[in-house]
Amino acid sequence: MDEAILFFNSLYKERFIEMKVVVLAVITGFIVGFIFAVFRLPIPAPPALAGIMGIVGIYLGFKAYEWLLPIMQGWWK
Description:
Layout: H1 2-38, H2 49-76
C-alpha cells in the first residue's frame, strides 16, 4: 500500500512540475507579445494557423521518434 502511495505522490509531483513549466511559458509568451505590441514590432510567432500547425507537427514528429526509437533499436539487435 505504501508503495502505491509513493508512486502516485511522485507522479503527482512530476505532473505539477510539468504544468508549472507550461504556465510559466504561457506567462512569458504573453509578456513578450505585450512588449512587442508596445514597441509596434511584428509578432514573434507564426501569424497564421498553418504556421502554428507546422510547429505542432514538428513537436509530434519529435515525440513519435522518441516513442519509435526503442522499437527500432530492438529490430537492429
